[in-house]
Amino acid sequence: MFVFGTADDVFGMAIRIEENGFAFYSGAAKKTQETAIKKLFEELANMEQGHVTAFKSLRATIPAALLETPVWDPEGLAESYLQATADTHIFTIEAAQTRLKSAMTVEQTIDMAIQFEKDSVAFFLGMKELISDHDGKDEINKLIGAEMEHVRMLSRSKWVFSQGGSPRVE
Questions:
Q1: Helix (H), strand (E) at residue 5
Q2: Which DSSP string corresponds to 41-100?
Q3: Which residue among 45, 110, 132, 133 is least crowded, i.e. fewest CB within 10 A of its CB?
Q4: Which CATH superfamily is domain 3-162 in?
Q5: What's the whole-model pTM score?
């Protein structure tokens, strides 16, 4: 395998991940009754929406010719990596909603969110390797850092919340 789609395809996947994150966190905020966790999920939903805007803005700064140029991947490693990441990620809003419905406790919902964020970091690291230096690697690094901060926020909130019990979510 010598090429893997285009840079525009990869940016489209990244935007979809962030849109799905927004849908997941919005749904999680509606589902939970715990005020502090509801607020956290609302905050994360807003952050994901900001990431959608950031990826769209970044994509808009890249010349169309570069976006449409096939991504060079002589050994098929990038394609394999991104495909494996995609297979474990919530890539549709419907999948996000289905998984959210299966969560019976706040901790389960937070665990899903943590996994979602870790998968996002893995995808964006792979994405960064596919684009050239002048195509926004610094911006992608900032977004990776933001996703890593989401993991920290969720983990910290899960620990604090676990000290007080585990009410069910509706």
A1: strand 3-6
A2: HHHHHHHHHHHHHHHHHHHHHS-HHHHHSEEE-TTSHHHHHHHHHHHHS--SHHHHHHHH
A3: 133
A4: Ferritin, core subunit, four-helix bundle (1.20.1260.10)
A5: 0.79
